[in-house]
Amino acid sequence: MTHAGPRHTGASGNDSSATALRARMAACGVLSVNLIGSPGSGKTSLLECTIETLPRYARVAVLTGDVQTEDDAERVRRYGFPVRQINTGSAGCLDGRMIEQGLADWRLEDIDLLLIENVGNLIGPADHDLGETAKIVLSSVTEGEDEPSSTPRSFTRQS
Ligand SMILES: Nc1nc2c(ncn2[C@@H]2O[C@H](COP(=O)(O)OP(=O)(O)OP(=O)(O)O)[C@@H](O)[C@H]2O)c(=O)[nH]1
Ligand SMILES: [Mg+2]
Question: Which class in CATH covers the domain with range 2-156?
Answer without folding.
Answer: alpha beta
